[in-house]
Amino acid sequence: MKIRLDSVEKRFRSARGDELVALSRLDLEIGAGEFVCLVGPSGCGKTTLINLMAGFDRPTAGTVQIDGHPVTGPDPDHIMIFQDYGLYPWKTVLGNVLFGLQAKGMKESEARERANAYLDLVGLGRFAGSHPHELSGGMKQRVAIARALAMEPSVLFMDEPFAALDAFTRLRLQDEVLRLWEEKRPTVVFVTHDLDEAIYLGGRVVLMAPDPGRVSKVLTVDLPRPCDRTSDAFATYRRELFEEFHLVHREAAGEVAYSI
Ligand SMILES: Nc1ncnc2c1ncn2[C@@H]1O[C@H](COP(=O)(O)OP(=O)(O)OP(=O)(O)O)[C@@H](O)[C@H]1O
């Protein structure tokens, strides 16, 4: 078992001193090489949960383990990709991808070879000498993906990585991420607001509910991937997830239903 959360609780204290339960007694197991998507209404604790798994924060109670070891801080083998790309603007595209490899102490020639190979993999080999400001949002996110994958991490955390992108780029990058996942098989935890994206990418979709943040439902998506978004099977999963999502919303809004 790759990632395991047992009775995880996370409390925050607001500026006014009130205590907020962001996550309550949450149990979850994610297998090695799985692709799991986290969805749920705003404020249900998705980012809090992924931050705990990535070691950016510690639970108030309960345990978070990866490969049987408690997570006590960030690990170079467990990499996070953020929505805002996090590229160094003063470095070239190649320089951005090289940075982590050099920091790891990899031999220069080997690092360059690997960085170029990953840039080719995301279709940006020709832009190795460009700077981030010369690229579109989708291209920047592909650099961030190449940079993360070049480290060949065993776990990849992605927090709404495509949220800022247009629909067309988003669909393309979904296919790219799936292809790269099939090739390298890292364990992927992917936060999204987009239920279709979650079904398309995730072998399992974890639906969370707020107040307090918890797992409301885990849906196993048994489709060959990449799957056909227009198929009846996809529509069936979609209906099931949307129905659950409405239930969670209704609960969160005090029994008042509204559409998304
Ligand atoms: N550092 C913090 N201090 C105080 N409260 C926090 C902190 N981080 C998160 N929270 C609170 O914890 C709850 C969960 O936040 P979180 O960002 O994990 O939700 P989310 O599901 O990722 O939301 P969104 O979909 O809007 O990004 C929210 O009520 C938020 O206000």
From TrEMBL:
Keywords recorded for this protein, A-Z: ATP-binding, Nucleotide-binding, Transport
UniProt xrefs under InterPro entries: AAA+_ATPase, ABC_transporter-like_ATP-bd, ABC_transporter-like_CS, ABC_transporter_ATP-bind, P-loop_NTPase
Coiled coil: none
GO molecular function: ATP binding; ATP hydrolysis activity
Transmembrane segment boundaries: none
ABC transporter domain residues: 3-235
Pfam families: ABC_tran
Gene3D superfamilies per UniProt: P-loop containing nucleotide triphosphate hydrolases
CDD domains tied to this protein: ABC_NrtD_SsuB_transporters
Protein name: ABC transporter
Organism expressing this protein natively: Geobacter pickeringii
